Amino acid sequence: MYYWKVTVNIHTAGPEVGYSTDRAVMNGDGEHSQTEQTESKQDGGGDTEQGEDPNEQEVIVIQDTGFTVKIQAPGTDTFDLQVSPQEMVQEIHQVLMDREDTCHRTCFSLQLDGNVLDNFAELKSIEGLQEGSLLKVVEEPYTVREARIHVRHIRDLLKSLDPSDAYNGVDCNSLSFLSVFTDGDLGESEKRKKKGSELEQIDCTPPEHILPGSKEHPLVPLQPQNKDWKPLQCLKVLTMSGWNPPPGNRKMHGDLMYLYIVTVEERHVSITASTRGFYLNQSTTYMFNPKPANPSFLSHSLVELLSQISPAFKRNFTALQKKRVQRHPFERIATPFQVYSWTAPQVDHAMDCVRAEDAYTSRLGYEEHIPGQTRDWNEELQTTRELGRKNLPERLLRERAIFKVHSDFAAAATRGAMAVIDGNVMAINPGEETRMQMFIWNNIFFSLGFDVRDHYRELGGDSAAHAAPTNDLNGVRAYGAVDVEGLYTLGTVVVDYRGYRVTAQSIIPGILEREQEQSVIYGSIDFGKTVVSHPKYLELLEKTSRPLKVHRHAVLNEKDEPVELCSSVECKGIIGNDGRHYILDLLRTFPPDLNFLPVEGEELPTECQQLGFPRQHRHRLACLRQELIEAFVEHRYLVFMKMAAMQLMQQKASKESGTSAAALSVAPPPQEDSVAASAAACDPAANTNGSAAPVLVEKQESQSPLEDPKSREVVVNACKAVGSISNTSFDIRFNPDIFSPGVRFSDDNTEDIKKQKQLLKDAGAFLVSCQIPSLVKDCLDHTALPMDGATLTEAFHQRGINVRYLGTVLEFIDKAPTRAQLDHVFRIGITELITRCAKHIFKTYLQGVELSALSVAVSHFLNCFLSSFPDVVAHLPVDELASRRKNRRRRNRVAGGGDNTAWASLTPSDLWRNIVSEAQEYYHFTLQCESVDQAVERYGLQKITLLREISLKAGIQVLLKEYNFDSRHKPSFTEEDILNIFPVVKHVNPKASDAFHFFQSGQAKVQQGFLKEGCELINEALNLFNNVYGAMHVEICACLRLLARLNYIMGDHPEALSNQQKAVLMSERVLGIEHPNTIQEYMHLALYCFANGQLSTALKLLYRARYLMLLVCGEDHPEMALLDSNIGLVLHGVMEYDLSLRFLENALLINSKYHGPRSLKVALSHHLVARVYESKAEFRSALQHEKEGYTIYKNQVGEAHEKTKESSEYLKYLTQQAVALQRTMNEIYKNGSNASIMPLKFTAPSMASVLEQLNVINGIIFIPLSQKDLENLKAEVQRRQQLQESGKNEEQLENSQLELEDKLPVD
């Protein structure tokens, strides 16, 4: 049984008060979520004035602790249940429906002293409910709704171990394989410890394909066979009977519905669900006789009835529930958003009443279980936003509601979009051609990503119409994050499915009854020809302008009058019939990217021109990312502070002495124009990420009203230099309408417009001259470690680089002097480039395919893309309707009319020609390959990796089997290998802001060395995350991983193991079983298993991680060195020396390649190899490696360093051992077989020493500090903080940061 309890400790009051005080005055703080919080507080009716009040309230709510109640259910013993006062009665219902002994009941009430409890009451509001109260479970009469819920629940219990829902990507199920490698739960370490100490004989040999240097990359091990999934058959068939619904005369006898069941023993029975329960009736398949059979076995629960008539059911159902309850809860809880698997084994299709019914009904009538019945999505989305947020409990409630509605909306929108493309939804404008159709299903509005009515003609037609929805979604995300009270956005989900892009939006009340022209009271419906504004909208948008860096500006309308706007012109304001102020079409929330928007008469800065910008792009909607804007403003802020500081110093110096003034004024202020050239300033900006900036603001604040005119002049100069919109304080904002075709500005603001244009050019230059080099630098020093396309894209986006710069980045890497050390990034980049180009082509390819030919078409495309077989032919499906062909025109087919078999003529050489030209056109990168084999050869790619990337991007699910890509005699894929096409869904991810702040404060504390406090804060964050997101979420995963690491460092190994196990399960479920993050989680778990003495499990986990990594990115990757060092060390520990050497020597090779032969990592690798050779008594090789290591230490850290000393000691020891061995050998040679020799001691390494080395390579450093050291460290940290706060002298600050870096341990 699992249970999410929310207990919030009292110390939440701390940070709460904290972060409303350091209100950032400038707008360049990188972590915008912090300003949002405070922004919204400032607007929220001044709660901040009574700073303490909300917290008083909080403390009261928070002191509630859990208590225990007794539960008595019919037919079971009374048992205890731990509950918390904030919970609802309904949550106890859920727990009982999940428990092994009560899971078959759904229709019951809970009674306390004979009073029925209200399902939606909170426990604390129930009179007389206290520690030790007895709650009785009382069976209630059924209704049709309750009977359906019961049958559905029983079906879910029967299918609880069946993975088919996860393969089919339904109901938020997803796969997890951890338990296969850990043989059940990891907590049972006690039983194993006893064996562990004698080092039980474990089979350590990995499968061939995992060994270093192996050339085969099988796919089948991706999903190892889970023995639990061999289904225990309880019933052959359970379906709704054909006699439903009951006729009127039977309704009056209480019949609700009829079921038809075939037991394992082949007994066919017909069952009546009545108000009193379930009983056998006398109907057969073809004869209706609803009278009770004799005996009728009337039972309140279907399980009780079936257990009486089928012994096999009774036996297997009990066994099944035992297994179900033993599984880790994280293996069965639903994820918040659907995760799709790109591979699946062949699964038998079995009869399933509920699935069949779900597919064909509108699913009305039982709301709890369904995200798909008709809900007023818009009302739900907006009402949750309006909930109170004055104190912590209120905010938690609000964020939980927002998150829940968003995840339900995303699920419903995805189902709707698929139904639309599959042709199952009637259009609201059926007379129009298919591309122009719009749909409404389940209160969601769907439109296709085509340029309808030449709306985007100026901007790039269909390409622009395809890009607009994602831009719009980014806008919705940004405004949603700022969260201004009174300003509403639409629920928006973008779904790519079968080659079409569908935008799903919630519907503004009343919008469908009016013409668009009448309802828009702010913004423009024709890209700026006619523009209107509205004071209320200006007031609301003004509040977003600082966090989003949007400049309030005036544009001319059709009458040449200036109109004030605080957004781009396309952003429309509509007041709904509900009186709310909505904004929509947020596709230009962020300013245009001039590198991809050639404008006549405008010159870009030289840094951009050297790289060949501006470049022609497919559409004119290319925007800069929000992350780039943040980084750029932050960078400007540092430049601003530097200039101000320099000039103030000059003034100060000139006051102090006339003579030195002359000397000082020679030092030029930083060049304003080539701001981007000061790339040095870029790096600290990237690292501080908004932490240093707010601290420095106070100083500037205290200056702006300075009486001293000279200082004021300093600020004005600095403001001017960095392009601030205000002259007295630092404030950078962008005008998103600059360079929009059709938008005109009045002549009075020419100066302002010029300034704005310059800002945009500088931002573009900043991207190419600062952000791209810093990305490459981060890849070089391994602070960024992309492993696949998704993590590479993430690394781009974190630094504000759009993926359309992929070609530029690849060229930059290719020309880098350290090209070899960037091999892995280059290879991942090329893979990403090729698969993205293939995806673009696949999109248009699919639009021309009939539904009946889908699997043939997809397999044909994959053959052309990946197979070495030169003449791939598509087998068209046999068209049995040839005769009726001519008169058969299907109207209601989605776009791409006509009967298309054009896709069948694609050949591999065509496709690769198209990929190469797409790479040139879109990414401006020249690929040198004409076929998949040339690409693999030239760029060192893996076909299996290419298959994974294209499947993930295009939503293809392939059969799990070994594909022969390299055969020149037959194609790799047949139509049977394509199992499904899934949607690729983009949506908003609402955040748990309070939890996130706790998490960040916890991280900060840990970095300062306060582990205990950090641990408490992170536990707190975990509670709050659980409260908002439920049990499964990416952020909870990060939380658990950090917690496990802290447990480990603080010596609590079992706790570390338990938390890390949860992190692995969650990562598998939420991100995917072979996501790079999951691979890392597996590695951490292996370390904690080893520390807990579970050696064989540790090895299995490491082998799994290595297999996944080979599949995802291949062997040649810096992270592989770490993995192999781990494997080698564990193998050394279990005395498998030869195997150990294979892995450690591979690690040494990779480390030398990616860290340079003189790096400390390489020295450590040499040492590890030497230790294994020592264990094998091959002292010469051991000496050779240790000497290498010693030389590196001596050159890098000097002779006096402890590492160098350790190495030199070890060298002496090895030399002695070698001499002793030689002496013994000579003795043997001299005296032959009767020599009396001392047996040499070969010691297996102690577990402790292996663990110590494991900690070192995994970067876990235990610092044994005395009390005195601790005091010094704290004092040092405080001194540094004060120094940063005073921030008087920037130079000093930088030096102190440098010192800090010198002192940090390198490994």
Automatic annotation (TrEMBL):
<dbReference type="InterPro" id="IPR025697">
    <property type="entry name" value="CLU_dom"/>
</dbReference>
<protein>
    <recommendedName>
        <fullName>Clustered mitochondria protein homolog</fullName>
    </recommendedName>
</protein>
<dbReference type="Pfam" id="PF13236">
    <property type="entry name" value="CLU"/>
</dbReference>
<feature type="compositionally biased region" description="Basic and acidic residues">
    <location>
        <begin position="29"/>
        <end position="44"/>
    </location>
</feature>
<dbReference type="InterPro" id="IPR028275">
    <property type="entry name" value="CLU_N"/>
</dbReference>
<dbReference type="InterPro" id="IPR027523">
    <property type="entry name" value="CLU_prot"/>
</dbReference>
<dbReference type="GO" id="GO:0007005">
    <property type="term" value="P:mitochondrion organization"/>
</dbReference>
<dbReference type="Pfam" id="PF15044">
    <property type="entry name" value="CLU_N"/>
</dbReference>
<comment type="function">
    <text>mRNA-binding protein involved in proper cytoplasmic distribution of mitochondria. Specifically binds mRNAs of nuclear-encoded mitochondrial proteins in the cytoplasm and regulates transport or translation of these transcripts close to mitochondria, playing a role in mitochondrial biogenesis.</text>
</comment>
<keyword id="KW-0802">TPR repeat</keyword>
<keyword id="KW-0694">RNA-binding</keyword>
<dbReference type="InterPro" id="IPR033646">
    <property type="entry name" value="CLU-central"/>
</dbReference>
<feature type="domain" description="Clu">
    <location>
        <begin position="355"/>
        <end position="597"/>
    </location>
</feature>
<dbReference type="InterPro" id="IPR011990">
    <property type="entry name" value="TPR-like_helical_dom_sf"/>
</dbReference>
<feature type="region of interest" description="Disordered">
    <location>
        <begin position="18"/>
        <end position="53"/>
    </location>
</feature>
<keyword id="KW-0963">Cytoplasm</keyword>
<dbReference type="GO" id="GO:0003729">
    <property type="term" value="F:mRNA binding"/>
</dbReference>
<dbReference type="GO" id="GO:0005737">
    <property type="term" value="C:cytoplasm"/>
</dbReference>
<dbReference type="Pfam" id="PF13424">
    <property type="entry name" value="TPR_12"/>
</dbReference>
<feature type="region of interest" description="Disordered">
    <location>
        <begin position="187"/>
        <end position="210"/>
    </location>
</feature>
<dbReference type="Pfam" id="PF12807">
    <property type="entry name" value="eIF3_p135"/>
</dbReference>
<dbReference type="InterPro" id="IPR023231">
    <property type="entry name" value="GSKIP_dom_sf"/>
</dbReference>
<feature type="region of interest" description="Disordered">
    <location>
        <begin position="1281"/>
        <end position="1307"/>
    </location>
</feature>
<dbReference type="GO" id="GO:0048312">
    <property type="term" value="P:intracellular distribution of mitochondria"/>
</dbReference>
<comment type="similarity">
    <text>Belongs to the CLU family.</text>
</comment>
<keyword id="KW-0677">Repeat</keyword>
